[in-house]
Amino acid sequence: MSTKADTPDFSDWQQIVSLFRQASAEGKDELLLRLLLTPDERESLIARVNIFHELLNGERSQRKISELLGVGVATITRGSNELKHHDAEIRDWLSEFLLKQQPKG
């Protein structure tokens, strides 16, 4: 008989955030992401970052963003709806954060 409860060890979002923080502190954040995410999930994450970046930039319509990124308009709309759940301070932070991360070209 197992003494361990019949629940997963990792069942809380904050536990996962802590895993990423620890992996980052150890310089293993990329490794952890590669282990946890399939290639398709990694591509989806790249698309999601670009969706937020484009929406916050405000220069393109959702249809143009959809064409640019090769994702459906519904995917853009979901990203837009997610941004609406956050106040202007958070949206401004994300916009500035993403701008700072852009490759210099």
TrEMBL record:
Keywords carried by this UniProt record:
Cytoplasm, DNA-binding, Repressor, Transcription, Transcription regulation
- Keyword Glycosyltransferase, does the record have it? no
Concerning InterPro entries, the annotation shows: Trp_repress (IPR000831), Trp_repress_bac (IPR013335), Trp_repressor/repl_initiator (IPR010921), TrpR-like_sf (IPR038116)
Q: Where would you find this protein in the cell?
A: Cytoplasm
Q: What is its main location?
A: cytoplasm
Question: What residue ranges does this record give for the DNA-binding region?
Answer: 62-85
Asked if DNA-binding is a keyword of the record, the answer is yes
Query: Sorted alphabetically, which PANTHER family does this protein's record hold?
Result: TRP OPERON REPRESSOR
The free-text function statement in the UniProt record for this protein reads: This protein is an aporepressor. When complexed with L-tryptophan it binds the operator region of the trp operon and prevents the initiation of transcription.
Instruction: Cite the record's note on assembly.
Output: Homodimer.
Q: Which family does it belong to?
A: Belongs to the TrpR family.
Q: What is this protein called?
A: Trp operon repressor homolog
Question: What gene name does this entry carry?
Answer: trpR
